[in-house]
Amino acid sequence: MPPPKDVVKIAIQMMGAIPQLIELNQTKPLAAVVKEVCDVWNLGNAEHYALQYVDGQQTYITESNRAEIKNGSILRLTTSPDQEAERLHNGIRSHNLDVKADSLKKLANLSRDITFAQEFINRNGLKQLFLIVEEGNDTGEILAHTLKAFMELMEHDFVSWETLSPAFIKKVVRYVNTGGMDASIQQLSLSILENMVPSSRHLFELVKREVTLDRLLTHLQVTNQQLQLKAMALLIALLLNASDAERRVRSPRNIIHASEPMGDEMAHYLYVLQSITLNLLERRMRTPMDPYSQEQRELLQFLRHSAFESESEASAGTVSAERRRSVCVTEFRKLGFQNHSNPAQDLHRAPPGLLALDNMVYFSRHCPSAYSRFVLENSSRDDKHECPFARSSIQLTLALCEILHVGEPCECSETAQAFYLMFFGQDHFFQELFCICIQLQNKTWKEMRATQEDFDKVLQVVREQITRTLSLKPTSLELFKTRVNALNYSEILRLRQTERMHQEETLAVPVLELRERLKPELLELIRQQRLLRLCEGTLFRKISSRRRQDKLWYCRLSPNHKVLHYGDVEQGVQSPPIESLPEKST
């Protein structure tokens, strides 16, 4: 008989005691449950204890979140939030540095829990953290734990950021501006400033006045990626909260401070920010796939399973190893890998290296319907007309790296201002851009009715579609997507023709006269070449009423250029003699 819905079976641990396996009745008051657990272990003062998750963020169990407890959960009997808050509040005021450091470390961990945070803040604990920072007597580990605890407590929005004292803010700014400061302290300080900026106009003005753009750019060019990301987040927060007039200022010393209304240098710094961010991708771009890496091989298998889930599962336990290997080879071919038996070889070239694999996996995970449609749609086409997903992804990733100058040093000239506002509104800009462009490539492939021989030509058109759209400076990826999809192959041809005509109009008179004089000769040469090609003939696939293409026929023009000869031919025949073609057409 199944247990009642209000009962869950859980385990409860306590240091130095044998765990208890109990059936937790969710209708019973939590205080009564804790009392029963304490009684089993002969613990008095049950009100001083609480239950807490062992795994994850080790959240305290309360009446409001107890419904989240599942069958099989493991809990811990521990000190109650109010008792722990009191103990740590005393500990961080200790003159014993070891006790103080341990208390701050535990405080930083426990402050993620909203129940504990409320108890600690109610004891005026934030004021004690302010004093540690303002006095400036503690550095290193103690200071890092203090800032971490402060950040975790502020995340709960119990206290306004506007309550911060000028002395506290000045210390945090100094940690950011001082060279040689511990990286963990600088990361936390940058996070604090980032959270201050949008909270009020006063704090925004204070941060933009005290933190120089040059200093932030210095943080962006270090090797510590976490420090780079925190500096980037602060700079973006300042840009997002600035007015239009402030974004157009010139002064490079203060981010938006100023008196000289000119936008060139701000545009240049945005370009530098974008370049440094994109260059975080450089390591993946320059790392070839390791055929012995289990993790990387699993990603390849993930791509295969995501596209051909039912086929892969059907072959899993019912056929021989040889048959399964054959299925894998077939599915990797359908995915568009050129090396079907060892697809890792396709990713051995760097660039684009592992960045191409990252993009393919991101597309399959975040756009699963589009991914499946791309692969299955093309794998059902004739081999010559399928748009190979893997090959397209690898070459498109390389093209995007070249277009966005990934891995190239930031230009210092004032002309290096190819920044895109849409870049600053996405957590995974490059991957999201890839998702749009890989679908664009499939769309353009179909518009061009391309075959495998046209692959480079299609990629060239896609590259032109992307660069033309980027030149319009779309402000969001959605706008980029709309515009790039509107720029279809027909429109590209029209634009090319218009530009060609414009170029012809600007030619000098002697050049135009020479072209007119040579035109008859050139047209005759083109005519002769076309006739020669018709005389050589071409092999065609014969489409039956069932749309099958298993028969071939050949057509060629007679030497006197008056009759077309055609007829069925066998597979493998390259250029049959004209006498073997029985059918004629004048």
TrEMBL record:
<dbReference type="GO" id="GO:0017124">
    <property type="term" value="F:SH3 domain binding"/>
</dbReference>
<keyword id="KW-0053">Apoptosis</keyword>
<comment type="function">
    <text>Involved in cytoskeletal rearrangements required for phagocytosis of apoptotic cells and cell motility. Acts in association with DOCK1 and CRK. Was initially proposed to be required in complex with DOCK1 to activate Rac Rho small GTPases. May enhance the guanine nucleotide exchange factor (GEF) activity of DOCK1.</text>
</comment>
<dbReference type="Pfam" id="PF16457">
    <property type="entry name" value="PH_12"/>
</dbReference>
<keyword id="KW-0729">SH3-binding</keyword>
<dbReference type="GO" id="GO:0007015">
    <property type="term" value="P:actin filament organization"/>
</dbReference>
<dbReference type="InterPro" id="IPR050868">
    <property type="entry name" value="ELMO_domain-containing"/>
</dbReference>
<dbReference type="InterPro" id="IPR011989">
    <property type="entry name" value="ARM-like"/>
</dbReference>
<dbReference type="InterPro" id="IPR001849">
    <property type="entry name" value="PH_domain"/>
</dbReference>
<dbReference type="Pfam" id="PF11841">
    <property type="entry name" value="ELMO_ARM"/>
</dbReference>
<dbReference type="InterPro" id="IPR011993">
    <property type="entry name" value="PH-like_dom_sf"/>
</dbReference>
<dbReference type="GO" id="GO:0006915">
    <property type="term" value="P:apoptotic process"/>
</dbReference>
<dbReference type="GO" id="GO:0048870">
    <property type="term" value="P:cell motility"/>
</dbReference>
<dbReference type="InterPro" id="IPR016024">
    <property type="entry name" value="ARM-type_fold"/>
</dbReference>
<keyword id="KW-0581">Phagocytosis</keyword>
<dbReference type="Pfam" id="PF04727">
    <property type="entry name" value="ELMO_CED12"/>
</dbReference>
<dbReference type="GO" id="GO:0006909">
    <property type="term" value="P:phagocytosis"/>
</dbReference>
<dbReference type="InterPro" id="IPR006816">
    <property type="entry name" value="ELMO_dom"/>
</dbReference>
<protein>
    <recommendedName>
        <fullName>ELMO domain-containing protein</fullName>
    </recommendedName>
</protein>
<feature type="domain" description="ELMO">
    <location>
        <begin position="295"/>
        <end position="470"/>
    </location>
</feature>
<dbReference type="InterPro" id="IPR024574">
    <property type="entry name" value="ELMO_ARM"/>
</dbReference>
